[in-house]
Amino acid sequence: MENFDWKNLPFGYVKTNYNVRCYFRNDKWGELEVSSSEKIDIHMAATCLHYGQEAFEGMKAYMGKDGKIRLFRWQENAKRMQRSADGIFMARVPEDLFKEAIVKTVLLNKEFIPPHGTGAALYIRPLLFGSGAQIGVKPAKEYMFIVFVTPVGPYFKEGFNPVKIAIVKDSDRAAPLGTGHIKVGGNYAASLYGVTKAVKAGYGSPMYLDAKEKRYIDEIGAANFFGIKNNTYITPKSSSILPSITNKSIMAIAEDMGFKVEQRPVSIDELDTFEEVGACGTAAIIAPIGEIYDMDTGKKYNYCKNGKPGPVSTAIYNRLQEIQFGDEPDKFNWIEIIG
Ligand SMILES: *Cc1c(COP(=O)(O)O)cnc(C)c1O
Fold first, then answer.
1. What is the DSSP letter of 38?
2. Which atom of ligand 1 is nearest to the CA of 282?
3. CB count, 10 Å around CB of 67?
4. Distance 26 CA to ligand 1 centre (A)
5. Mutate which of 244, 253, 316 to test ligand 1's pocket (most atoms within 8 Å of Cβ)?
6. What is the pLDDT of residue 255?
7. pLDDT value at position 153?
8. How far is the centre of ligand 1, averaged over its atoms, from the C-alpha of 244 (Å)?
9. 3-state secondary structure string across 54-85
10. Are 44 and 74 contacting, i.e. CB atoms less than 8 angstroms apart?
């Protein structure tokens, strides 16, 4: 698409030409269908609408300097969507169907893949939901799997710059034995209170603590948290955290760069001791954190005192982006070229 303003692309929805759909009926998946409609026609008693029987994924296709289209660790997203399906009793999307659907959707919308060097990518959103009618609280018998794509710019329009986070303690996005570890819609509805509260107070995202003790760090909005000190990359471990594929990749990169990696409960009492802190996920890759504000105690933790992201976060961010865009050899075997 010539004349498209790729550099000022927001992180939002832009209509593309096609999406793909597949139905699970009579205990089996049907054929993939290509659609050019943005609308779906579902029963008003579908379980996704009443009981939140819905899961999604988020991933990106990257355009390399060589003009080749790259997917990043798609198998991890396929597996996570299966875990999400298991967690709320939906039909699993088989890995080969998942792959066929994402590859088809990306290739059908090739012209929407942002050019190399713009920092933008094609966001891929697979959705799985109960489409069958049910009035009692029980799993649907029919499911719908949709994949659509939309070109996205950097998550933060300010670019790779420190963000401000507020600790929200009067609401939880997930419970210790709830559904925080899977990517299901209900978690995000539950997170909107914290998001709105943080944003109203002038902060970018909320920090959620563990629901039981309100002492250990769970997540930053819809991103994982990490801290760096003494040559160690530390990221929280908790049953209510969504295992981020970005974080998993960063841990491998950090180790490769000679850092020690620890995945363990991280108390907010430790916040004072970190040299760098950040949030990570597919959307922003890494968001360096400049300030964490405890809304209840008024305490502020400050990082990036020169206004710039820390050197370790910057190095990891650059290395991961270079792998994703194909600017550096794919040492970890994370990339699949699809066209
Ligand atoms: C999607 C998501 C993440 C990030 O996961 P990635 O696989 O890195 O994109 C982190 N936390 C939550 C709650 C999420 O929904």
1. S
2. 9
3. 9
4. 32
5. 244
6. 98
7. 87
8. 5
9. EEECCEEEEECCCCCEEEECHHHHHHHHHHHH
10. no
Residue 242 CB less than 6 A away from ligand 1: yes
Active-site annotation holder among 183, 214, 229, 300? 183
Q: Would you tell me how many other CB atoms lie within 10 Å of the CB of residue 327? A: 16
What is the spatial distance between Cα 187 and Cα 178, in angstroms, rounded to a whole number? 9
Q: Tell whether the model's pLDDT for residue 114 goes beyond 70.
A: yes
pLDDT in tens, 11-21: 889 999 999 99
Domains in the chain and their CATH numbers? 6-152 (3.30.470.10), 163-324 (3.20.10.10)
- Count Cβ atoms within 10 A of the Cβ of residue 158 and give its class: 0-12 exposed, 13-18 middle, 19 or more buried: exposed
pLDDT per position as a tens digit, 37-91: 999 999 999 999 999 999 999 999 999 999 999 999 999 999 999 999 999 999 9
Say which residue the tokens 């080969």 belong to. 96
